[in-house]
Amino acid sequence: MKRKIAMIELRVSPSSTGSWTKQGYEAIYSGHDEIRQLDSFYTWLLNLIEAVPGRRLLDVACGVGVLPNKAAEIGLEAYGVDMSEEAMRTALGEGSAGFVIGNGESLPYPAGYFDYVTSIGSLEHYLDPFCGARELARVMVPHGRACILLPNLFSILGTVYNALKHGRTVGDNQPLQRYAALKDWQDLLEQGGFIVERVVKYERERPRSLRDLSWYLRHPKPLVRLLLTPFIPLNWASCFVYLCRKR
């Protein structure tokens, strides 16, 4: 019996078709609001999945392809898929990973093809996140590992703080956004075909290069968030990173 999943949803359009989400991301990636994190973030994720050179990795809704390109640099056979043509043009120009334009709810890959699948802050933006979770599980080998990052409804430094200070829910300027609590997201992933083995909290990643350290020194708010990270309980974290195997 499936559990009911409690979450809140923010839409910038009342449309129920997929075209408006694609248009929204084309606008994001053709402007100056590129969705991208520090390089240290992607290195941290690859360490979490204990990536082994020579194996296959797929990053779904990969944006400008930083994670697949970083994976290729350390010897993985890496691929990325995203619906934005603008994002794919940037990704192809920045590294050696393979990229295709596609929808995470219907991946253009055979079943059981990838040793690692990653979905970093993307399932919450799908029209059908259950379908997206099923597709992630479908393309992963039986003994592979999935790394899936999702946002917390009860983030003490995010949604809760914003509601306390401004009386509003936090949006991230993407066409469609959802928030849920730790166990609600876990139920969704498990109904999609995963077994969650471990959950890691995420606020900010520690800098792994002088360049990223310099960025923190120029941006005090993220630095404060990084310093507070050890003191924030898992259930109050900004995001959860679910490390999963296939059911």
Please tell me about this protein's structure.
With 247 residues, this protein is of the alpha/beta class. It has a single domain, classed as 3-Layer(aba) Sandwich (Rossmann fold). Helices cover 34% and strands 25% of the residues. It is built from nine helices and nine strands. The strands form two sheets. It has a seven-stranded mixed beta sheet, with helices on both faces. A two-stranded antiparallel ribbon has the order 1-7. Helix 5 (129-138) links the parallel strand 5 (114-120) and strand 6 (140-151). The radius of gyration is 17 Å and the shape is globular.
What attributes characterize this protein structure?
247 residues; alpha/beta; Rossmann fold; 7-stranded mixed beta sheet; two-stranded antiparallel ribbon; 9 helices; 9 strands; 34% helix; globular
Task: Write a brief structural summary.
The chain has helices at residues 19-30, 39-48, 66-73, 85-92, 129-138, 159-166, 182-191, 210-218, 220-228; strands at residues 7-11, 56-60, 77-82, 98-101, 114-120, 140-151, 176-180, 194-202, 239-246.
